[in-house]
Amino acid sequence: MIGSPPTEVPAALTTVAAPVEARLRSILETERARWVAVDADLAAPIDVLTRFVLDGGKRLRPAFCHWAFVGAGGEPGDSGVIDAGAAFEMLHAFALIHDDVMDGSSIRRGESTVHVTFDADHQESAWSGEARRFGEGIAILIGDLAEVYADRLMSNAPAAAFEVWNELKIELNIGQFLDVLGAARGGVDLQTARRIVRYKSGKYTIERPLHVGAALAGRLDELEKPLSHYGEPLGEAFQLRDDILGTFGDTARTGKPVGDDLREGKPTPILAVAHERATPTQLQTLERIGCLDLSLDEILAIQTVFTDTGALAEIESSISQLTAQAIKALEIIDVSTEARQSLEALAVYVGTRDL
Description:
Strand order of the largest sheet: 1-2
Strand content: under 5%
Largest sheet: 2 strands, antiparallel
Number of domains: 1
Shape: globular
CATH topology: Farnesyl Diphosphate Synthase
Mean pLDDT: 94
CATH superfamily: Farnesyl Diphosphate Synthase
Structural class: mainly alpha
CATH architecture: Orthogonal Bundle
């Protein structure tokens, strides 16, 4: 997959993105006007959040929510599902901005991360205090602001949808804790790595958006388990692909420096498999994972270990199997033909994407 032509984005994704982006733009323009009237300095956080939300992102979460909703009988242009899609994008912004602070990441989507941007502003302006703490503090506040907007967008949702929404936020935080803990401890077994995959990203990206969509259409009780049979394996496949891209991806496509996940010591399944199979010499190479000064040559050496131990091939095989499992599960889900076809197209995209 690495080095192949760019993966084609399916219409099932692009058709959902436009109304969600229009809703986000409207909200943020209104909020900017409101707060600039209070203090001109308040343009900065809104402008940064606007760029972060609108200038990147795949809109996967709104798409899964949309197609579960439409498949369950909802109207495509319903304001409630558009608001939910916008809420998922705001929540994703919250998660990524905070994640970048926790990981100390400097680049996101090819641009400086939020905390690095405000760190630089502090230094250029020669303000008092520590630039790093200022940058991180502002980034945390902007992330918090995004979460508040996300909750406000969900405030009119049916109780069942809001209950799923709150549960997915808890799961997201639980998964992030396990991820940070695993990186700090160094080394992780495959079972734990897969648990992190499930809670940090898989459920939050696919399974729970599907459940929110079904709840918005009033059919969660009926569709929750069948949608999970599709969403759980596909959510794992999504994060496994992310892990591969974090180590082998093209920076021009992913927007993140190659090897960042290795410098951060992310406790990924591919690393767990490589650890299990590595020779003593290969283990010495893997011991450098988690070092912030990891060189390009060392990253290439780690990539070689992942390939030579068969870890890369095993994870690629797992992605293929999990994607096929998800597509097979669509056969028993009582949704419209259009939704089933769209969810299949999304599954293929998730398993093969290159960014």
